[in-house]
């Protein structure tokens, strides 16, 4: 069994802004062997988020139109000459299995907050 990470104070979790967004497009990042660019609609705003899906999925575009959970208050990060403005939540990568999206059980308004 994988060990549980160290305990954190509840107020740390309250600082993380997790929202539902709909993945509008998935675009290849030329020159990167793993990254693709997601254009995500969060209702009142949209973001560009880079994710390493090329090696995880045969067809990264299969997630277009799907809702998923994202962290939207991370510092922007430059990767492969592009800026990523958040992070997608997926399940499985850390455990060595093919990741799946963390998503709501039924459609909710884009921008809905988790927690």
Structure, explained:
- With 115 residues, this protein is mainly beta.
- The chain has a single domain (18-101), classed as Nucleic acid-binding proteins (OB fold (Dihydrolipoamide Acetyltransferase, E2P)).
- Helices cover 4% and strands 35% of the residues.
- The chain contains 1 helix and 9 strands, in the order αβββββββββ.
- The protein has one helix at residues 10-14; strands spanning 18-28, 36-41, 46-51, 67-71, 77-79, 82-84, 87-88, 90-91, 100-101.
- It has a 5-stranded antiparallel β-sheet with strand order 3-2-1-4-7, with no helix packed on it. Strands 5-6 form a two-stranded antiparallel sheet.
- Strand 2 (36-41) and strand 3 (46-51) form a beta hairpin.
- The chain is globular, with a radius of gyration of 14 Å.
- The two termini are 26 Å apart.
- The model has no long low-confidence stretch (mean pLDDT 94).
Short description, anyone?
The chain is mainly β and 115 residues long. It is 4% helix and 35% strand.
Using brief descriptors, characterize the structure shown.
9 strands, five-stranded antiparallel sheet, OB fold (Dihydrolipoamide Acetyltransferase, E2P)
Topology:
Elements: H1 10-14, E1 18-28, E2 36-41, E3 46-51, E4 67-71, E5 77-79, E6 82-84, E7 87-88, E8 90-91, E9 100-101
Antiparallel strand pairs: 1-2, 1-4, 2-3, 4-7, 5-6, 8-9
């Amino acid at each position: 069994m994988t060990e549980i990470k160290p305990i954190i104070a509840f107020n740390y979790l309250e600082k993380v802004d997790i929202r539902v967004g709909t993945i509008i497009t998935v675009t290849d990042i030329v020159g990167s062997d793993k990254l693709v660019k997601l254009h995500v609609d969060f209702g009142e705003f949209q973001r560009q988020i880079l994710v390493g899906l090329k090696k995880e999925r045969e067809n990264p575009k299969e997630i277009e139109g799907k809702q998923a959970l994202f962290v939207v208050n991370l510092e922007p990060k430059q990767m492969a000459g592009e800026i990523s403005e958040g992070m997608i939540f997926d399940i499985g990568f850390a455990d060595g299995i093919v990741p799946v999206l963390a998503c709501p059980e039924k459609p909710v308004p884009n921008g809905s907050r988790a927690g």
